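Troubleshooting: if your tokenizer reports a length mismatch, compare your output against this known-good record of 403 residues.
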Amino acid sequence: MRVIVIASTVFTLVLTFGLSASHPAGRAHDGRGEILEGRQIFRHDTFGDEQLWTDVLRMHEVIADVSPATALAVGLKVDVEALPPAVVDALKAGDVDLDDPAVTTELLRLNAVVGVVGKVGEAGELQSVGITCALCHSSVDDSLAPGVGKRLDGWANTDLDVGAIVALSPVLDPGLKAELNAWGPGKYDPRHHVFDGTDIIGLNTPTLPIVIPPIYGLQKVGFETYTGDGPISYWNSYVGVTQMGGQGTFRDPRIDVDIVQEPDLVTPKLPALLAYQLSLRTPEAPKHSFNRGAAARGEKVFRDEARCATCHSGPAFTDVLSGPTAPLLHDPSEVGTEAMYAQRSATKKYRTTPLRALWQHAPYFHDGSAPDLSAVVEHYDTQFSLNLTPAQKADLVEFLKSL
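Known-good structure output:
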């Protein structure tokens, strides 16, 4: 089944998502009630995506046989605050059999698996399963055990192996499973396919997975995709409908996608979801995680010798809103980065990535090609012929670790 293109404009998209035309980051949201509503949506709303995860992929059949140990091994997280005190005590005492799939079903019944919503019948059978935004964009603080703790909303789940999880579906062919298994932890390919409510439709091959980004610190950013395809709610809509499989409408002729499903369970929730996302603050770098003296010197290198502030400017350390028109984007050749993923996007270019809590979410660049901040500095030193000294490079890394 092919996706049918229907003409529309970016302006129409912006209006659809209820965003301010003068401020692409969206209108200011000060209402505590809207933020709380957005948190509920972010953590627990599947947008009806059981139509993909249950009806098509039949993941409820798979998960019914998955033990907690296996689930944790592929990066799923458990919200300790959703667990009854008796269960917490049993986990602390080692009295819970983490190799028993029935325990996984019970965790789903308690709504304790971050980003996964399961419906459990009276006989204890898992009847359906869906996912939420929190699956990829929340983690936990490991306060009870590795993978078990209090939620850290907005943090990228760098342990999550989405491809390996989806590849467990009994309905996918071996070739597709091989592509999914190649993604690895902390990566996802949003340009690989779309779901139209009935069918999974391939977009591009070979697959090009990108790093799952954190979504805290979005104030004054405006465009959250690596390629700046649209305002934040544009991406929420794209992911909610085409990737999560939610029941809704998403249209963008630039990428040949037109999906209409009624009633739309996604679009009406975008303003509250945005309000919650904009409320998520960037976590501070842990004490003693960087050398403060070196970071102070590195800030000068960042601004002067390395010229990083030319693009990484303003409070969000990005120039995406600073051009004569927004978004301001850069050709892959300008920054020496992988170009094929950009070609699969609506803009064919890359946005300057906001620099926030870099200590927390290695690897770097959209494709994860820089394993650490030293590799990032080396890349740009070569790309722009900066000729930084080893001492300047080390100081610059310490400054980046402090952000």
